[in-house]
Amino acid sequence: MKAAKRWIVREPFTNDREAQSARLAEDINVTPPLARLLFQRGITTFEEAKHFFRPALHDLHDPFLMKDMAAAVKRLMEAVSGHEKILVYGDYDVDGSTAVAVFYDFFRQRHDNIDFYIPDRYTEGYGVSWQSIDWAEQNGVRLIVTLDCGIKSADKVAEAVRRGIDVIVCDHHLPGSHLPPAGAVLDPKRQDCSYPNKELTGCGIGFKLVQAYCMAAGIPAETALGYLDLVMISIAADIVPVTGENRVLAYYGLQLLNSSPRPGVRALMDVAGLNGEISITNVVFGLAPRINAAGRIHHAREAVRLLLCDNPEDARSFAAEINSYNTDRRTFDSTITDEALTMIGQDEWLLKANSTVLYHKDWHKGVIGIVASRCIEYYHRPTIIFTHSNGKATGSARSVPGFDLYEAIEECSDLLDQFGGHTFAAGMTLPVENISAFRLRFEEVVSRRILPDQLIPKIEVDLELGLSDITPRFFRILRQMAPFGPGNMTPVFISHGLRLSRPPYVMKEQHLRLEVIQNGSQPFTAVVFGGAGHLDDLNEGKPFSLCYTLEENEFRGSRTLQLLVKDMRF
User: Fold this and answer.
1) Among 173-187, 403-417, 528-542, which stretch is predicted with the lowest mean pLDDT?
2) How many domains does one find in the chain?
3) Among residues 207, 440, 545, which one has the least CA distance to residue 215?
4) Which CB contacts under 8 angstroms, 24+ apart, belong to 179-184?
5) Which residue among 159, 331, 405, 490 has its CA within the 20 to 30 Å range from the CA of 225?
6) Which of 439, 455, 471 is the last residue of a domain?
């Protein structure tokens, strides 16, 4: 049974804010609940609403506002005109794979001396690798362009430069104390970079460089915009804010994906069973895991090969292969998660702990981060899953909202060989014999630092709704608030005093489908995944509250609104 959840409802509006949101409702002709939703997201005027509901390509920022952009474009133009060999280098996740696909595809059409390189997750690891520098030198590379990595690879960049290879770094991670000695470093998070959007993905920065090159070379702007589908996939997968410029990129990327998907993406949509209009949610749960699976199970170049494929028949073959990697990934994920939960359930110390640290020498390194996240769904606390790799214990860590995982691990650093990451996720290696000591130290640090509320999962609720507020027009406008993501999450509602209009229906012995009413309202279907445990309370006729999102269900050509329940209370 998953942990009980806290419902965190946004603070009620003051009289002044209520009056302002009422004016907004009147100005843009929406109901008061919709106006409150917009107001919560910082949209308080007619003009702001216009920009929000109608994103415009002319709102994209000038790429030359980014520090070093002019130098990067100049060096690329020199390489193209001089027929120098260019190596496009990317990370092995979705962001890196889409970035390589965008950049390589654009330049291979304009330059015949280009190749791409993605490091092996297991033998080379994250960032620019020493092996890649050797490979570049042996293959006559004169310019390396790194995408979604490189900002923390100053030593490798310096070595490339020492060997006569120029480097352009395109990254979106926080720089260290020293920037790499590259000819150009494109990273909005540089302290001396005034680019307005600090939250571009790695693929987004590669796109901005392509956009700048088009401007400098007199290439039509539409050429760069043709890659927005891949930029959108990176935005969805990398969990960056879907606001400002990212909202524009995601909005038009989704349009492109739905109107004319490239053959590789079309084939991936088919094997994922995605039909009808594709949303960011479909990308997050349908496309991104499959692209990621290539790097986790085999090699990420297979994902890039699929994204670059322009032959539909070959694309179908590549997609089937990628899908098989994802099937393997899911098998590993499910099996290891079950084993991890069993280990916790059989260990009294672990059951009472404020953290989870598990080790098994045979667990697959490519899925231990996913398993850590799965464990948090059941035991809501900082979690680290270790496996054996190259004579060491390799771990992947995940945190809970509000708890700084990186700082906690740093307090244990004397037991580690190396570690890296950020507040919510990290990776590390240590001697196998140090695991027991690390588990005790990490538990002590977490217990000292974590707040009681951080050990209870929460659901952030936007508004209380009456079922009578939910109309086809309400939902139609709600959908226009998409694309959803960080900074503009799918709205979550609560409704109280609900009753059943007919007996509950149990699906697959664990899920529920309910018909709910409120004060004589029309009935709505509510789907409660994993909700069969509430059956006795429902059969007793108790009134209840639901926390839910809204979705449209299509069955035999008929469309109806239904509640997708996140939690319920009696």
Assistant:
1) 528-542
2) 3
3) 207
4) 179/151, 179/154, 180/150, 180/151, 180/153, 180/154, 180/156, 181/154, 181/157, 182/150, 182/157, 183/71, 183/72, 183/75, 184/68, 184/69, 184/71, 184/72, 184/75
5) 490
6) 455
Is it the case that residue 363 has pLDDT exceeding 50?
A: yes
- Structure confidence at residue 3 (pLDDT): 59
How would residue 268 be classed by pLDDT, with cut points 50, 70 and 90? very high
446 shares a domain with 384: yes
Backbone angles phi, psi at 6, to 5 degrees: -90, 140
- pLDDT-based confidence at 1, cuts 50/70/90? very low
State which of 221, 249, 270 marks the end of a domain.
Answer: 221
Show the domain range for 157: 63-221
pLDDT in tens, 128-149: 999 999 999 999 999 999 999 9
193 with 206, same domain? Answer: yes
Contacts of 284 (CB under 8 A, 6+ apart): 236, 237
Q: What is the CATH number of the domain that holds 488?
A: 2.40.50.460
* 450 and 467 belong to one structural domain: no
Structural domain includes residue 151: yes
Give 383-425 pLDDT, tens digit per residue.
999 999 889 999 999 999 899 998 999 999 999 998 877 788 8
**Residue recorded with tokens 């400002």:** 244
For 59-91, what is each residue's pLDDT tens digit? 999 999 999 999 999 999 999 999 999 999 999
Q: What is the pLDDT of residues 15-66, one digit of tens each?
A: 888 999 999 999 999 999 999 999 999 999 999 999 999 999 999 999 999 9
Q: What does pTM read for this prediction?
A: 0.90
Inside any domain, residue 321: no
Cα–Cα distance between 197 and 187 in angstroms, integer?
10
Same domain, 401 and 479: no
Q: Quick one: CA torsion of 399, 401, 407, 410, rounded to 10 degrees?
A: 0
For residues 469 and 501, membership in a common domain is answered with: yes
The full DSSP string for 481-502 is TPSPBTTBPPP-EEEEEEEESS
Residues sharing a CB contact under 8 Å with residue 386, sequence separation 6 or more, in sequence order: 357, 358, 359, 360, 368, 393, 394, 395, 435
Q: Is residue 436 part of a domain?
A: yes
| Same domain as 213, residue 148 | yes
- Whether 105 and 165 share a structural domain: yes
Indicate whether 443 and 467 sit together in one domain. no
